[in-house]
Amino acid sequence: MDWIKIVLIFLLGLFGLILIATYLARKKRIKNFRKKLEKGLNNGWEFEKFVAELFKKCGYKVTTTKGTHDFGADIIVQKRGSMVVLQAKYLSSTPSTTALDEALAAAMIYGATEIGLVTNTQLSDSLKEYARKIEETTFIKKVILIGRKELERVMNGERLI
After folding, report:
1. 16-20, 66-70, 138-142 — which is least confidently predicted?
2. Which of 10, 106, 129, 137 is the Cys-Cys partner for 72 at CB 3.0 to 4.6 Å?
3. Is the whole-model pTM more than 0.90?
4. CATH code for the domain in which residue 133 is found
């Protein structure tokens, strides 16, 4: 009977160590991403690579387009059998609705039913309203908006897509 207790204690300790190691690795990953974002990225292409890497680290299958002739898709994310076309906008001001128009056009070409916008800035109320209109009036089932606050949540491991 004593050996059963010893094995159970060992297994609980091992499980605890695995949980701690996972937590510390995630915390380090988040710190590195936050550092990269705070340090500043030089241009939109660096931001696209940053966002793609972030979603890969969150466990998604990610494809980046080549930048030109991408039909409005900067990043394509595969999730649970569906595809999300993302526009990544690294701006000094709030993105316009044009970014969602570009993603919508790309969704038609790539056959996606979900689109999104990821930006380093805040999201305007008019952009949020436009996203709701797209969901109500087009073939798009879901519009995902990820602004500065939501980007922080993704860096903390939250799955917003």
Report:
1. 66-70
2. 106
3. no
4. 3.40.1350.10
